Amino acid sequence: MELFERPDSGERAVLVHVGFSGQPDEEELQEFAELAGSAGAEAIAQLTGVRTSPDSRTFIGKGKLEELKELLAMHDGELVIFDHELSPAQERNLEAELSCRVLDRSGLMLDIFAQRARSFEGKLQVELAQLKHLSTRLVRGWTHLERQKGGIGLRGPGETQLETDRRLIGARITRIQKRLDKVDAQRELGRKARRRADTPTVSLVGYTNAGKSTLFNRLVEADVYAQDQLFATLDPTLRRLELPNNTSLVLADTVGFISRLPHELIAAFKSTLQETIDASLLLHVVDASNPQYQIQVAEVDDVLQQINAETIPQLIVMNKIDRMEEVEPRIERDDEGRPIKVWLSAVSGEGINLLIEVLAELAASEQVTKTVELPPSEGALRAALYREADILEEKYSEKGDTIVSFRMPLRSFNQLKKNFPLLGEEPSAE
After folding, report:
1. In the chain, which end has fewer C-beta atoms inside a 10 angstrom radius, N or C?
2. DSSP H or E run through 173
3. Alpha carbon distance 293, 304 (integer Å)
4. Cβ proximity of 11 and 153 under 8 Å
5. Could you report the per-residue pLDDT of 207-241, keeping only the tens digit for each?
6. CA 347, CA 228: separation in Å to the nearest integer?
7. Strand partners, 317
8. Which residues are annotated as a binding site for Mg(2+)?
9. Is 354 helix (H, G, I), strand (E, B) or coil?
10. Binding-site sequence positions
């Protein structure tokens, strides 16, 4: 059976969500509707149901399939979006039964990413993810794809390749991967330079739309794109943040996470997420006004585990307190006095000073401040301190020795101490 000719349009969508452990959660349905809206779909109807397991042929049963056909006819629908992963066969069977385009959750998120990508690297990453996803869907041959003219799930940097055969798609994937490897190598040079300069990197992570970019802009007075929409930020942005105690750090704004983030996207955005993996500290931004925030925190922790970043220290930032009643900016500490949470509003600026205070405290805890007396024979150590440390004061003793007060990262101090025993025992970190 030949596939129908796909329509040029296709933004009027029926949304389908099936609960496999009881009725679908209202928050899940709301997030799904927001995802569809982020892609530009007009949600004309929503179909929900409960099953113990997906139907192998069409994911939903015959009764729901008929209900779906009626909804499409009643509302003049052009597209069906499933809040689930569909197999290539299920997607194909549904399209044949419904005579309209069918998109699953991965395809929907890939489309949103295609719209949001702004940098050269981001566009390459989206194209790579799209091609990998689409290559699993193209079982029957490619001729029907020549009629795809765009629309949700079909646009993006990779759409011009859709009429080519598998060999050309494979070659394109290889070329993109090589380009991304080159970009990643350039990023790694930057990361190595920061490590040599002992400048800590702090990465903002969190569920999509938690307010990371707004917080980033507030901290570094940047103009990173920040909107009340899912996945507003795809490309990592790095800025230096000067702290009150004469220390500084590099702040990185990264892509937001979401439940059931497609594996193709995690793989494609590896170089973007590398900024998270290499961070000294993660600022985990949480929408404190969302009643489901604990579930979102768990989803973010799950993705961090997937990219091997679960062992990096976290500071929880409870954002959006301006939307909550009787919640004041504050710092929460553990039993040992270490800061673990900061409550603030990135939009109003309430509590930003508390976050800066905590960042300065954490940066200082990684610093060593010490005064040493150097005889004339220790010229090499004096030179090393001037090269690697921040010299606070230098004066001379009555006997002609040089007294140097300095501050430097604890890690660098420990390395230097191996070559210059005169530095003595490791001081306590301030």
Report:
1. N
2. helix 166-196
3. 16
4. no
5. 888 888 889 989 988 665 455 555 555 556 788 88
6. 11
7. 285, 342
8. 213, 233
9. helix
10. 206-213, 231-235, 253-256, 319-322
- Residue 324 parent element (H or E): none
Tell me which CATH code domain 198-365 carries: 3.40.50.300
pLDDT for the residue numbered 63 = 93
Rounded Cα distance between 36 and 16, Å, is 11
Cα distances from 327 to residues 306, 342, 345, in angstroms, run: 34, 12, 10
What CATH number is given for 12-103 in this structure?
3.40.50.11060
Interval 242-274: pLDDT, tens = 888 777 888 888 777 777 776 666 766 665 566
Q: How many CA atoms lie within 13 A of 281 on its CB side?
A: 21
Query: What is the C-alpha to C-alpha distance for residues 3 and 12, in angstroms, rounded to an integer?
Result: 21
* In contact, 231 and 216? CB cutoff 8 Å: no
Instruction: Provide the residue ranges of all domains of the chain, joining segments of one domain with +.
Output: 12-103, 198-365, 367-423
d(CA 248, CA 268): 31
* Residue in 219, 200, 241 with CA at minimum distance from that of residue 362: 200
Report residues of the chain scoring pLDDT below 50: 1-10, 139-149, 158-162, 196, 225, 425-430
CATH fold label, 367-423: Alpha-Beta Plaits (3.30.70)
Q: Comparing C-alpha atoms, which of 225, 231, 223 is closest to residue 262? A: 231
Q: What pLDDT shows up at residue 194?
A: 56
Which residues fall in the annotated binding site for GTP?
206-213, 231-235, 253-256, 319-322
Which two structure tokens, joined as six digits, stand for 179? Answer: 């380009």
Residue 238, C-beta contacts closer than 8 angstroms, at least 6 positions apart: 190, 201, 250, 251, 252, 253, 275
CA distances (Å), 191 to each of 72, 155, 360, 389, 411, in order? 51, 33, 21, 20, 16
CA distance 60 to 90: 10
pLDDT at 263 (0 to 100): 63
Residue 281 near residue 315, CB atoms below 8 Å:
yes
DSSP characters for 85-150?
Answer: ---HHHHHHHHHHHTSEEE-HHHHHHHHHHHH--SHHHHHHHHHHHHHHHHTT--S-SGGGGG---
